[in-house]
Amino acid sequence: MYKILAVDDEPFNLDLIELAFSEIEDIIVETAIDGKDALDKIYSKSPKYYNTVLLDLSMPIKNGFDVLKELKNNDTYKFLPVIVVTANNEEKHNALRLGANDFLSKPVDIEELKSRTLNYCKLSQFQYQLDDINQVLEDKVKERTLKLQKALEVAKETEYEISERLGKASEFRDLETGMHIKRMSHYSAKLAELAGLPKDEVEIILHASPLHDIGKVGIPDNILLKPGRFEQKEFEIMKMHTTIGGKILEGAEKYPVINAGKIIALQHHEKIDGTGYPNGLKGDEIHIYAKIVAIADVFDALTSKRVYKPALDLDVAIGIMKDGAGTHFDSTLLELFFNNINEFLKIRDIFKDESSETPSILNLIEEGRI
Fold first, then answer.
1. Residue 210 vs residue 132, higher pLDDT
2. Domain spanning 174-367: which superfamily?
3. Could you tell me which CATH number the domain at 2-118 has?
């Protein structure tokens, strides 16, 4: 059962939100008429009571910005997903900088409201489960030291499972093929192994790399599912999937896979020469996990069939990627990748697409989509 708190000083907007979720059995919508009312209700419940807050920004007594600042500066509630609902683009960007997880533009599209809100409800539930697992582990350590190893193994497997399911959430948003996720995660692990990373880090990359595009759950469908080239304004919004992904996965330092996923989600579009996004990192400023995943992701995009293009010939794909050595890609890692290309082709053969007609929205590198 998911619980949503809708905050708006306009009764009509609250009625609209309640009506939108009225036919979904697993959703309970509670309402607040201003920021003070919202905080009172949040603080009166347990920290894990609400799964998502739908927050208007322009309200009397306490506006949405005040609520957002207070929640995101509170260690107990800072991971509670907040979706701002506004018609003002400037307000939207300010809210995201303050820590809002996502935004919806007024007038609200009902189907988008439902799907985006449900996505964040599920994500928050996963986070709550992680917290519960951590508490269980602490109790187990106090109880019996002999059971610690088994409990840690269960926690690791659970984290892997959660990571995989979060990866599937982004996959369903952009209709990407599941085999792409499988291939690029195994490509990433193999390249990490060849690069000499310790075994435990290779395993972390294997399970964290599917989270690279989790931020796409926060991109509007009219942009995410657009089949053609982005306009500049659309591309700027699309680029926000990196920062949204980082926000979704932040604060998970105790969970190695989720924390690695945050790094990958935030940095996998950075480029060695500093022309990437979102932060224009370059060279060693980019984490090796992100450098590895960038190579694996682009290689699979170029060598796989998509609805808008055939798979490129291997030599052509290699040529394109080698042209990006030292600018887009880390030269040492890229050379290591192609010097062992047969290892990666074996992985490609193992995880072939089940259907050649699986839809996708990836575009070529020059379109700025990978």
1. 210
2. Hypothetical protein af1432 (1.10.3210.10)
3. 3.40.50.2300
